[in-house]
Amino acid sequence: MNNNIVAEIINIVKTTKDNIDREDKLRKYFEAKMCEWVRQALEAIDWELAAQYGKEGWHVERRDNRTVQTTYGTLSIKRRRMCKDGEASIYPLDKELGIRRYQRYSAYFEYHVAQIAAKTVYRTTALAVNTLTPADISHQQVGNIVKHVGKKYAEWEKEQRQDECCHVQELKTPEVLYIEGDGLEIKGQKGKHMEVHRFQIAEGVTEHKNRRELVGAHYISDFEHRKAVKA
């Protein structure tokens, strides 16, 4: 297989005289190869999952197509929909990969889109993403991704606070309490923006060699400043 790939690359290089066109063709070639390899791997995993679920009384209902945009290309796979008496039908592969229903973009792709959108407007974000990745995304879709990522981030911080609360055995009464607040602004269209308000509370700071750590740190975040303050 490696010899065939090298031969195909040699053919692209030799038959394309323009440098920009050559690199564009090579990029598309590697994208197609990467997506094909990942597709084969995921469909093999889907087969293994179906066998595991089959031992628990699940039955294959059908195989459905699923397309997800990733940073390395458009990934199209076929995975099994499985059913069981008294249970809602599921796609074991989707569950294993953490792909939510109707999700069009991979989590890693969404992460990078949100990072770019935090620095510029949605139209520029869409242009950058479309230029540097195989994606074809609109500024409206950028907005939807930003909202989803912002919501998931707030949910994650809430879970962190709840987890901290579960491990607190007794309340402390420190002599000094340090409170610091900031915000993560996500730019939108026509001057609109979203902002995650964050506060961190700590008893102090300790130093370990060249690294500082907060003592008894507690984090609070919310889209609404009033709710974050009251929390």
Map the helices and strands.
Layout: H1 2-15, H2 19-54, E1 59-70, E2 73-84, E3 87-90, H3 92-97, H4 107-117, H5 122-132, H6 139-166, E4 178-187, E5 193-202, E6 204-208, E7 211-215, E8 218-222, H7 225-230
Antiparallel strand pairs: 1-2, 2-3, 4-5, 5-8, 6-7
Structural notes for this entry:
The protein has helices spanning 2-15, 19-54, 92-97, 107-117, 122-132, 139-166, 225-230; strands at residues 59-70, 73-84, 87-90, 178-187, 193-202, 204-208, 211-215, 218-222. The protein has 231 residues and is an alpha+beta fold. The mean pLDDT is 84.
Any key phrases for this structure?
2 domains, 3-stranded antiparallel beta sheet, 231 residues, single chain, alpha+beta
Order of helices and strands: HHEEEHHHHEEEEEH
Percent helix, as a range, is 40-55%
Strand order of the largest sheet: 1-2-3
Q: In this structure, how is the largest beta sheet organized?
A: 3 strands, antiparallel
Q: Give the low-pLDDT segments.
A: none
| Category by helix and strand content | alpha+beta
Number of helix segments? 7
Percent of sequence in beta strands: 25-35%
Number of separate strands: 8
Shape category: extended
**Gap between N and C termini, in Å?**
58 Å
Question: Mind telling me the C-alpha Rg?
Answer: 24 Å
Mean pLDDT: 84
Q: How many distinct folded domains?
A: 2
Please give a quick description of this structure:
This protein has 231 residues and is of the alpha+beta class.
